[in-house]
Each structure stands twice: as C-alpha cells, then as structure tokens.
Specification:
The complex is a heterodimer of chains A (about 220) and B (about 220). Chain A is mainly alpha-helical. Chain A has helices at about 5-20, 20-40, 45-70, 70-75, 80-85, 90-120, 130-155, 160-170, 170-180, 195-220. Classes of the chains: A mainly alpha (about 220), B alpha/beta (about 220).
C-alpha cells in the first residue's frame, strides 16, 4: 500500500472513531444559518448577499476542521513516529488534504440543504448543479490551504488562533472567487449562468497553492 | 555522485556536536564513536541533554554544529537515507491513541514497507494479541508501553534509541524488550549510574556538556 493511501486510511479511521471534526463543522454551519435567518429578519436572501452568507459560513466552519487536523498527531507524539518513517512527507500532506476535502464535502451535504431551507427562496433550486462545481473547486482550495497552515501551526502553542489568523487572509481569493461565481446562481430572477472567469480563478488558486504547499511542506515539518 | 557509506563505518560518530534551543545550549562539544552492535549508556541528571542527543540521532532534531554520522550517514543531510534504520523508544509512545495496537502497527508496517505478517508476530511477542483490536485509550500504561516496543522494532532497525527505558517501562515491559533488542546497536539514556556496568561505552552529560562519571550527579 502506498504511504498516501495508508495515511489517508488512518485519517478516515480516526475521524470515524472520534467524530470530532465533521459533526462540529456541520453543526456550526447549520447554527450559523439559523442565526442569519433570524438576524437578517428575512425569509429569503438572494444574489451576492446569499453567496456571501453561504461562503463565509462554510469558510468559518472549515477553520474548525483545520484546527483539528493535526490534533491526534500531536497527542502521544504520533506525528514523530510518522516523521521517522522512510517516506516522502508530501504523502502526509496529500493524505490530510484529501481527508479534509472529503470532510468539507460531507459537511456541505448537510449545510447546503440547510442553507436552501433557511435562507433561499424557491427559485434557487435550479442552481444546485452549477453550485456543485463551485463547491468542488473551493473545497480543494480550502483543504490545500487549511492543511498547509495547520501543519505550520501544529508545533506552536497558540495553534487554534494561528490557523485562523494565517488561513483566512490566504483564503480571501477563494472567498472572493467563490462568492462572485455563486452570486448569479442565487439571483432573484432565477439562476444565471456560472461565470467562467471566477471558476478559472478558483482553479488557478488551487494549482498555485497546491504547488507551493508540496514544495514547502517537507521543510515546514523539519525541526 | 557520492559513494554509499562503508558498512564498516561505526554505528554512531559524533564530533563536536552542538544543539541549541533558541539561545539555550542543550548540547555542546559531544564527541564519540560507537561500533556496530555495541551499547552506549548516556548518563546524567535531568536537563543534561540526554533526550536531546537521542532526538538528534533519531533525525527529529537538527544538529546546529559539529558532525553527526549514524551508520555512516551524515545528519541532517542524509536523514532520509537513515529513517527506517533507526528505532526510537521515547517518553511518548509515538502512537495514535484512538487506533488499536494492530491499526497502529499496520500503519507503521505500511510506511516502512514491512510485511504485515510481522505485525501479528510482534503482537504475540509483546503479549497484546488478545487485545490487539482495542483502541489504545482502553489500554493500561504498561500495555501502551509494550505496543510502543513493538513499534520500535517493527522494521528491524539496526540502531535502537531508548530514552530512559527503566523509568518509562514497567518490569514486565522491560522483560519483553530485552530479547527484541538482541544484536542491535543501542543507545540508552539513564539516571542510574549502575547502567554503566552493562554498557560497552558510557557518556556522562551534565548541563549539555560531556562530564566525568565522578561527580556527575553532585549538586
């Protein structure tokens, strides 16, 4: 079995057994939508406001997950056991990124229907398929960045604070592009077409941050 | 292209090793040569730099000055070549608490490309076969120690680094450990001067510096 596959299997087993990250992220998302529902005092939102509410909520939920990514590795020195293995440490990064992207997708299975139910009008149903494309590209970007930043912060005492402080600014391009790409889908007059330019920005971000992360992750885990 | 290290090279060669944590010097001026198959006892009081020395040899910490060679490979440059040939039993078990002993050892077997049958064999030898599928969170401290021993020797390392095994292992676990270490080069840290009697070489450390055994623990 390849190291990435073995490490991915470990990540999924740990989350299945502890159920620490995914339920917390899902609960946070749904609760936030409920808060927006009552806080905005509107039955439905549309356009850029709807896109902003969706992406800010998903991003903050993702920060909860990013904070948990290396917690089990830090306990009992387990990460050091992995670091002493004769493997390319990029395997660890890839395994955690794939697992994190998977966790985000599971959270969205709960969060997006809740968002539709609590905050979107009935016309928004047409937007589901194009929205999946935006979610896919944005999730990859969030997972690539979140794993990288969590890896940086794992050896510091103020890990929880540091992950958000570093990751949120780095993820601004993702939020801008995802919100701009999503806004036409939630238009009051019915779902518009998906803006190709913002999808390209999301794709480009994923490629660039992925290459940077692969180049530096090994170095970051060095003493 | 650099030639591969000679198999006749000593297991461990240190020359003027220095390691700092920020401004604080944890190790300085440490030099020694240990032949393959020999046992080195590193003695000293708390804070002497014993664990730091082991972590440098385990490739977990980079030396800041001096030369470090393990099995002929220079650290930190050749750390990658060396990983997989060292076993490290530290204060922490280096295991995932929410995984079972079998899952932990299978993970390490896959990362070290060791046959998975070795996992079952080792679980038997350390006496964990009956509880192999329970998560480590349900284990006693001694059982976690035995699982850590199995992890340490799983990949048949040529050099084993033992951080205060007497302090960290209960007598039953220590008994399990001994036959699994036979024939390997050992570096063992200890507070106990009596450990010098069973070692082939002894290094006294005090405040990060080599020190004679006499007066090593004087206040």
């Amino acid at each position: 079995m390849r190291p990435t596959t073995a490490l991915l299997r470990k990540e999924l087993t740990l989350e299945w057994r502890t159920r620490e990250a995914v339920p917390a992220m899902a609960l946070f998302s749904v609760t936030t939508f409920v808060v927006f529902h009552f806080g905005l005092q509107r039955d439905s939102v549309e356009g850029s406001l709807a896109a902003g509410v969706l992406w800010v909520t998903l991003l903050l939920a993702a920060m909860l997950g990013a904070n948990r990514l290396f917690v089990s590795d830090a306990e009992g020195g387990a990460l050091e056991g992995i670091l002493m293995a004769p493997i390319d440490r990029t395997s660890l990064y890839l395994a955690k990124t794939i697992a994190f992207a998977g966790f985000l997708a599971i959270v969205e299975l709960v969060a997006v229907p809740a968002f539709y139910l609590l905050l979107l009008g009935p016309a928004a149903g047409d937007a589901v398929l194009p929205l999946l494309g935006v979610l896919l590209l944005a999730d990859i970007g969030i997972a690539l960045t979140g794993t990288l930043v969590s890896g940086i912060a794992t050896q510091t005492r103020s890990r929880d604070l540091l992950v958000s402080l570093i990751a949120l600014p780095l993820l601004l391009p993702v939020i801008i592009a995802a919100a701009r790409a999503t806004a036409p889908l939630f238009a009051a007059a019915g779902a518009g077409s998906l803006p190709g330019k913002w999808m390209a920005v999301l794709g480009l971000y994923d490629v660039i941050i992925g290459l940077i992360a692969i180049a530096v992750f090994d170095f970051l885990l060095e003493d | 292209m650099q030639p591969p290290p000679s198999t006749d090279a000593p297991a461990i060669e240190l020359d003027g090793l220095e390691r700092r944590y920020g401004e604080r010097v944890a190790l300085t001026g440490v030099s020694l040569s240990l032949p393959r198959g020999a046992t080195l006892a590193v003695l000293g009081p708390n804070g002497a730099g014993k664990s730091t020395l082991l972590r440098v040899l385990a490739t977990l910490l980079r030396p800041h000055a001096g030369t470090v060679r393990v099995l002929g490979h220079a650290l930190p440059k050749d750390a990658w070549e060396l990983r997989g040939r060292i076993g490290y039993l530290g204060h922490e078990p280096l295991l995932y608490r929410d995984l079972s002993a079998r899952e932990n050892l299978l993970l390490h077997a896959r990362l070290h490309r060791v046959a998975e049958t070795r996992v079952g064999e080792l679980l038997e030898r350390v006496g964990l076969a009956a509880r192999a599928d329970d998560p480590l969170t349900t284990y006693s401290r001694g059982m976690v120690q035995r699982c850590a021993i199995a992890r340490t020797v799983l990949h048949d390392p040529e050099v084993v680094l033992l951080d205060e095994p007497r302090a960290n292992l209960d007598p039953a676990a220590a008994e399990v450990l001994e036959p699994l270490l036979a024939g390997r080069t050992r570096v063992m840290t200890s507070h106990d001067p009596r450990d010098a009697d069973t070692a082939d070489a002894v290094l006294g450390l005090r405040a990060g510096r080599p020190h004679d055994l006499e007066g090593l623990y004087a206040t």
